């Protein structure tokens, strides 16, 4: 391993010099490099290879085995381009080494004809297969052309870095450039971790890691380098979150610690007792509310786990202490649903609740706003728009936000300014793998309701195709004959609400006319006027509607225990977490419940895996993991737009454990030195500010 020079401030600045002025780069190549996001020497040093190839032992052709990826090298002795008129035939090259022959083939790569020439020596990497007892063949291998007089030691005979490329830039020149950067600048990369942290976590130094991530001497060196860089990624993320939380959460808060009269009366009015999980979580929340700091807590619990009642207890605690509370939901329908739920519980205790959505206009709106401003309304329920609109509370003590993943960090900061630094409780029914929770909500404390109310029966989930439609309808009819109710969910057909609506409307009309003429079919969609939605929901709750056809507006929060069966049309078009949320609408009562996923037309392999996961498990956390695997972390809940810094090396799927270590380290560091002002934290502080690029400032406003 290389030895590290003491890092100086000079070298830190040197790392910011543009690559363009490096000898041998020039404007042309600089442009290509910039397409890869490489502008400065530092960018180059941290341009991590997508993988390494073990070329310490090139396999002789004679010893190539079928199946696994291998590296080998040989000289081109024959080239056969696809025959004219048959562009779909492969471009084939025959190579020879001392031990035999190998054919390499590529499809749809016409440019190869200009690149590969007889007599060239190639290094290849790929899988070999044998076709119809013919010669060994390598399909679509990665290859590099060995140039005369090149420093071959850099490109073979070792673990060789393979970089992501851009058109016009090939592997070898890029590798040469990075090699030069590493030789000349890696040792000058300033260490950012305090010695104590490095020792505690057994991490190699940053200069050593930077060298080894490109040109490791062994697999062990490579993995030590990865471990170090992954740790830095996570530490810088978690440090930012810890600092945010320090500023927001540890800020002076309202101590809401009433005797608990209202909560006690609510408990006595309930027809059920709280589950152990609900009790535990409630105790965590109660302690937060009573304490001297503002609460910042995420309440996680699978669909149907009973989060709303816990939220209601928090709301009553705020009211009991003389404050107001707000409850915000992602959609108007869900806000109305929450209103209906809270109306059962709060007004009987003398606690007035009101709804405010953008659909409420004119005098009615003014009256409610006045009630909120005067304090006459104790609990205001609305959509997330509550934050943006000109709502002034008299004394806001608590804000409950339902369905966090549609509610960003920035909105949370705005919300906090609405009152005297109110407590914030974020509820999510979307189970989030722990690694992601630590990333997205690293600045929140987390409470989990990991238990469903007793008596819930598993929901029987079945995947069906069009051929079974008649039987499915007969099944729905039998359920209804037994006194139950059914949902029929129609997907978003295109990226248009209008077509979405049309599909659901037509489905409702057809079912009413042709299938369930003797029953009542209702329709619910996002574009209905407010009163209309409320009326349909009330009628469904009252059992007057037997079959409720709906768009995905019912995805979250609808709570009708008598509904025992859900038919999802075009299930292949729904995302996995969406399907899980939808399914959560049934199985809320003591009856056996069913979810039928109807696949129509063709569906992708991924769609089939989603449906498969649904039929095999009902565990929300397991489903979230599959979802994360299928979609990748960037896409999952739109983390890309979350305003969090990008990782250089770390991968949430692979590196979960390191994330937890880094989180602990980060919170310890911030607890000991909140502004990272100590001299041994100076490097870390600079790296942190660079990584968050001002977004940390934004958070501190809240
Ligand atoms: P979610 O966590 O999905 O928001 P809800 O709060 O809507 O779940 O609760 C689902 C249903 O379970 C509601 O009808 C609620 O009244 C009921 N419920 C909540 N807690 C319990 C409990 N401890 N025992 C029985 N039923 C409960
Ligand atoms: Mg809910």
List the helices and strands and how they pair.
Layout: H1 9-14, H2 26-35, H3 41-45, E1 51-54, E2 69-80, E3 91-97, E4 100-106, H4 112-115, E5 121-130, E6 136-139, E7 142-146, H5 152-155, E8 159-162, H6 171-185, H7 195-201, H8 206-214, H9 219-248, H10 261-269, H11 276-290, E9 296-301, H12 307-320, E10 324-329, H13 332-345, E11 353-356, H14 362-374, E12 379-383, H15 385-388, E13 396-402, H16 409-417, E14 423-428, H17 434-440, E15 445-449, E16 459-465, H18 469-481, E17 485-489, H19 497-515, E18 521-524, H20 530-541, E19 547-550, E20 563-568, H21 576-583, E21 593-599, H22 605-616, H23 620-631, H24 656-672, H25 682-692, H26 695-701
Parallel strand pairs: 4-6, 9-14, 9-15, 10-12, 10-13, 11-12, 13-14, 16-21, 17-19, 17-20, 18-19, 20-21
Antiparallel strand pairs: 1-8, 2-3, 2-5, 3-4, 5-6, 5-7
Helix pairs in contact: 8-9, 9-24, 9-25, 10-12, 11-12, 13-20, 17-24, 22-23
Bound molecules: adenosine-5'-diphosphate and magnesium ion.
Name its key features.
binds magnesium ion, six-stranded parallel β-sheet, alpha/beta, disordered C terminus, OB fold (Dihydrolipoamide Acetyltransferase, E2P), Rossmann fold, single chain, disordered N terminus, seven-stranded parallel β-sheet, binds adenosine-5'-diphosphate
Report on the structure:
The protein has 702 residues and is of the alpha/beta class. Helix content is 41%, strand content 18%. The chain is built from 26 helices and 21 strands. The strands form four sheets. The protein has a seven-stranded parallel beta sheet with strand order 11-12-10-13-14-9-15, with helices on both faces. A six-stranded parallel beta sheet has the order 16-21-20-17-19-18, sandwiched between helices. Strand 3 and strand 4 form a beta hairpin. Helix 8 packs across helix 9, helix 10 packs antiparallel against helix 12 and helix 22 packs antiparallel against helix 23. The protein starts with 8 loop residues before the first helix and ends with a helix. Bound molecules: adenosine-5'-diphosphate and magnesium ion. The site of adenosine-5'-diphosphate has 17 residues, from helix 12.
């Amino acid at each position: 391993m290389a030895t590290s020079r003491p890092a100086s401030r000079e070298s830190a600045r040197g790392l910011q010099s543009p690559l363009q002025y490096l000898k041998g780069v020039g404007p042309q190549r600089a442009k290509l490099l910039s397409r890869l996001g490489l502008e400065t020497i530092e960018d180059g040093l941290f341009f991590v290879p997508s993988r390494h190839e073990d070329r310490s032992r090139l396999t002789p052709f004679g010893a190539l085995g079928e199946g696994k990826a291998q590296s080998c090298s040989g000289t081109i002795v024959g080239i056969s381009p696809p025959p004219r008129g048959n562009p779909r035939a492969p471009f084939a090259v025959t190579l020879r080494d001392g031990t035999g022959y190998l054919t390499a083939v590529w499809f749809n790569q016409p440019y190869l004809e200009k690149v590969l020439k007889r007599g060239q020596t190639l290094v290849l990497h790929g899988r070999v297969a044998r076709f119809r007892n013919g010669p060994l063949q390598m399909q679509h291998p990665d290859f590099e052309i060995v140039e005369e007089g090149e420093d071959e030691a850099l490109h073979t005979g070792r673990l060789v870095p393979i970089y992501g490329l851009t058109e016009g830039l090939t592997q070898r020149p890029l590798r040469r450039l990075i090699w030069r950067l590493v030789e000349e600048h890696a040792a000058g990369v300033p260490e950012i971790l305090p010695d104590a942290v490095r020792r505690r976590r057994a991490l190699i130094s940053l200069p050593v890691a930077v060298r080894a991530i490109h040109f490791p001497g062994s697999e062990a060196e490579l993995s030590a380098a990865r471990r170090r860089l992954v740790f830095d990624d996570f530490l810088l993320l978690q440090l930012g979150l810890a600092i945010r939380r320090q500023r927001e959460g540890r800020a002076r808060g309202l101590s809401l610690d009433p005797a608990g009269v209202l909560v006690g009366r609510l408990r006595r009015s309930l027809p059920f007792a709280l589950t152990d999980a609900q009790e535990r979580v409630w105790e965590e929340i109660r302690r937060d509310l009573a304490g001297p700091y503002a609460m910042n807590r995420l309440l996680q619990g699978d669909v149907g786990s009973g989060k709303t009642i816990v939220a209601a207890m928090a709301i009553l605690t705020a009211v009991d202490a003389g404050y107001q509370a707000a409850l915000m939901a992602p959609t108007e329908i869900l806000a109305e649903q929450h209103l209906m739920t809270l109306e059962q519980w709060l007004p009987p205790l003398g606690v007035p609740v009101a709804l405010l959505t953008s659909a409420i206009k004119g005098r009615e709106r003014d009256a409610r706003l006045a009630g909120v401003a005067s304090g006459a309304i104790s609990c205001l329920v609305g959509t997330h728009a509550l934050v943006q609109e000109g709502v002034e509370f008299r004394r806001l003590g608590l804000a409950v936000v339902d369905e966090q993943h549609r509610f960003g960090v920035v909105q949370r900061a705005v919300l906090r300014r609405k009152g005297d630094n109110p407590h914030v409780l974020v509820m999510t029914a979307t189970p989030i793998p722990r690694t992601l929770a630590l990333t997205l909500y690293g600045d929140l404390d987390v409470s989990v309701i990991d238990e469903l109310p007793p008596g819930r029966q598993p929901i029987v989930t079945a995947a069906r195709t069009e051929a079974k439609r008649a039987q499915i309808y007969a099944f729905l009819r039998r359920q209804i004959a037994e006194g139950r109710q059914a949902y029929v969910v129609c997907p978003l057909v295109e990226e248009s609400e209008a077509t979405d609506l049309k599909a659901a409307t037509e489905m409702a009309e057809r079912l009413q006319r042709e299938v369930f003429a003797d029953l009542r079919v209702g329709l619910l969609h996002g574009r209905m006027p407010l009163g209309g939605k409320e009326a349909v929901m009330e009628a469904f709750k009252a059992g007057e509607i037997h079959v409720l056809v709906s768009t995905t507006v019912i995805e979250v929060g609808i709570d009708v225990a008598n509904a025992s069966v859900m038919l999802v049309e075009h299930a292949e078009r729904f995302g996995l977490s969406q399907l899980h949320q939808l399914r959560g609408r049934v199985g809320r009562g003591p009856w056996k419940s069913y979810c039928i996923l109807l696949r129509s037309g063709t569906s992708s392999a991924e769609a089939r895996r989603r449906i498969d996961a649904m039929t095999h498990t009902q565990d929300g956390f397991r489903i979230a993991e599959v979802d994360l695997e299928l979609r990748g972390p960037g896409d999952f809940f739109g983390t890309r737009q979350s305003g969090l810094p990008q990782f250089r090396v770390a991968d949430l799927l692979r590196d979960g454990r390191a994330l937890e270590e880094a989180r602990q380290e980060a919170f310890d560091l911030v607890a000991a030195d909140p502004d990272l002002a100590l001299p041994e934290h100076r490097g870390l502080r600079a790296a942190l500010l660079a990584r968050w690029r001002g977004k940390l400032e934004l958070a501190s406003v809240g």
